[in-house]
Fold:
Amino acid sequence: MKRILTGVAAAALIAAGAAQAEGVKVGMITTLSGGGAGLGIDVRDGFQLALKMAGDAGAAVDLVVEDDQQKPDVAVQLADKMIQAEQVDVLTGIIWSNLAMAVVPAATAQGKFYLSPNAGPSALAGANCHPNYFNVAWQNDNLHEAAGAYANSAGFTNSFILAPNYPAGTDALAGYKRFYEGALAGEVYTQLGQTDYAGEIAQIRASGADSVFFFLPGGMGIAFMKQYAESGVDIPLVGPAFSFDQGILQAVGAAALGVKNTSQWSKDLDNAANQAFVAAFQEEYGRLPSLYASQGYDTANLLLSAMAKADVADQDAFRAALEEADFASTRGDFAFNSNHHPIQDIYVREVIQEGDVFTNKVIGVALEDRGDAYADQCNM
Amino acid sequence: MSALLVAEQVLNGLQYGMMLFLMAAGLTLVFGVMGLINLAHGALYMTGAFACAAVAAATGSFWLGLAASLAAAASAGALVELAVIRRLYARDHLDQVLATFALILVFSETTRWLFGSFPLYLSLPEALSGAVDLPGGLVYPAFRLAIIGIGFAVAVFLFWLIGRTRLGIRIRAGEADREMIAALGVDIGRLYTLVFALGAALAGLAGALVGTIQSVQVGMGEPVLILAFVVIVIGGIGSIRGALVGALVVGMTDTLGKAFLPQLFALAMEPSAARAVGSALASMLIYILMAAVLIVRPQGLFGARA
Amino acid sequence: MNRAAIIDAGLFAALVAVALVAQAAGEPFVITLATKAAIFALAGVGLNLVLGYGGLVSFGHAAFFGIGGYVAGILASHAMSGAPVATFPFTMQGTNEMLAIWPMAMAVAGLVALAIGALSLRTSGVYFIMVTLAFAQMLYYFAISWPAYGGEDGLSFYVRNTFPGLNTFDPIQFFAIVAVLLGLALGLSALIVRSRFGLALRAARAAPGRAVAVGIRPFGIRLTAFVISGMITGLAGALYADLNRFVSPAMLSWHMSGEIMVFVILGGVGRLAGPLAGAGAYILLEHLLGGVSEYWQALLGLLLLVIVLFAPGGIVGMLNGGRGR
Structure:
């Protein structure tokens, strides 16, 4: 363990030696209180871990972290504060698409860089893309698209699909249908924040479907899976990783065992950067990292790689350095598309039990080198 | 759509109504006896769920967890009553709303501090997991049937408690005339603490049961709290019978609306628009119902006075 | 000037002083905070009219706040895209002129308040609290599932609307606009309370039976007050949209209703500058406690508890030495 850490630190030191740039001031706006705090805390911890592991290069990052309480108006005001008062060079940290839509366009218009560690709304990938906006996670549709592709390869021909009735929900179902070639046994929009799914499960039971795709992030997904497991319906479930991350799985427990889910990252991905990350995260925080922690970690490493090559004051050079994405991602191969969104593999994982911990295991690749559906609409 | 599906949805509505009743019973009891609007009722519900999850995880027994949820919520309720709530009886509704709103903040963040930001694990006991076959070919989860049963049992218990016991007589007397029963030598302070703890225990029980099939997380009480208020307002505030009827009406309306409104609209419009309009209307339905009830009967279905 | 009037003027002066000092010290974010406090205070001034003077506890004022915000957001986004807002029964274009947006926001909020008030005022007490909440929740769920203007994601319009002769993007100039409107609303509120109408409103609260006996019809009086209150809160919503260049259903949620209520109660119910004191203190606490701990909301809750238990007159009540209203 120690050796890996020293190795990574040494590599980072060498990289940092290339250009002893001025420090970079980074403003992180993320969710640290309330029901959605788990995601923000993981992004922050992953980000800070990468800085710590980078040693002196990491110390050159002056990080300010603020809590947006998952409220868009608070996020906008914090962004104003960081831009006006703190004069940050780079903003990052936002978890939720609606908060990103409120903050990112104004921030990039004011000449700040924004590195997204989680949200990837379609508007920012397409018509409203911006040279200073980089997404280090995924475009929102990606994991749903991969679920559709997986459904084809698993031989499903009659899916029942459901998601909450809000923009990310309709996007999720559209994403699934983009690659899925079979028929639909049903398409249902639930209420946002709903926690009782008896009615929907009854519809699934009566629908004659051969598979169920659901996008129900957070507590909604926990409730759905527990109730589904008790209902006596045994049609296979497929979903994006948001309902299967490390924090949530422990709450779902055995009800999630065997469920297939799609993700761009998994803790058992076999590459050196990922193994170093997983080990260091466990040692530092005493828990397994989640998808969100890996994204925070990658975001910080992307930033460090650009700092090693260019001074943030020289915007064009810094942007070019970011575009190269010259860092060892925990996901393996990682490159930026023309719209500054990732081109990456999306994996299929299965929920398994290791001792008394529930976690995921990669079982295949759903989409290889996937960009996104909106890159063509982006002219920058 | 088959008769089986309709039957299952009606059962779902009944079950949802019973869940709401467990939550609303304590709320309406506290309001009826002490005239207190308790926004923190949802926080006590969350306390019950967390106590159940923590004890079940430590001991491996769901039933011990359930007992712990009653004990934890009742003692949290008694503590809060002694420290804060009893200073509010003489105040107007405004102060009660603000103080109990503040209690929500304290409870939520303290729970997050104690248990972390991630949802907790709480699973069904072995005896009640899985589904059972009902007559007519209906398959239904055993635990949901148990919730319906517990709901009825609690309703019967409350009717008995209020209608047939000494405590019930005092409670009813307290509702009718506070000064008089104090003059008759009943320790009104102790009575109020007891009633508040009872209401809290009911909330805690509901939290543990609902947490088992949903998720145990910070903030879980708030959406249910608003629904519980809708229930008791429709039923008539202070009336246990009103809470029962209100809960069943709301449970049925919500479940059947969500299940069948989108299909109803699909008869007249193209499918995707029908789904959007249908689901939007379904989520507003119970509030429309509540407004309609209040416009026809401003004191609710079983309310004594406005 | 009596003591109450001195306190009111002092609080308003303090707000302006904070912004001016922040401007001189080069702290634009503090100006933004002061602006936010002024906007919340304005929303509270609206609520205080029915809650403080009329005794009507509305738990649904987020409805008007959100509607004001959405009117501003929708008009501004249409001005940006160039598409008309409506083509039937007449063509209506979007606009980014605050002077056109404000009356529109107030009119729409007022109309909705008329409808909600006409139905809700048939009830009283707790039922009134809950039925106003129900109407706000209806609008909230409608806004979430209505896709045209962003649904749950909300609606961004990126550029603050314009005001003739001013650069609204400059924090201090935008603050000046908000402060003047807040001053006007406070003045209007003072006039209303002292007018025959205000007396009737208070009489209907204190002694409904006697008020009827002297020929006051409480329903009409209360409904009028409710509509004016909704319009003021709607204006605050439009300004809040402009502060953030963004609106979302969160502005319509019951948390928002609760917060507006907290501003009024914290500051002092039925006191002219109560909402100003309450909103200012709330934002100050949020800002200070946020730096103390991740769990700052628990501290905020404890503080609110202490205030409601031991200082029932709110902040203005304390300043006034516990004297009557």
Q: What stands out?
A: The interface with chain B takes residues 51, 57, 59, 119-120, 122-127, 129-131, 133-135, 137-138, 141-142, 144-147, 254, 258, 261-262, 265-266, 269, 295-298, 300-305, 308-309, 312 of chain C (CB under 8 Å). The longest strand of chain C covers residues 155-156.
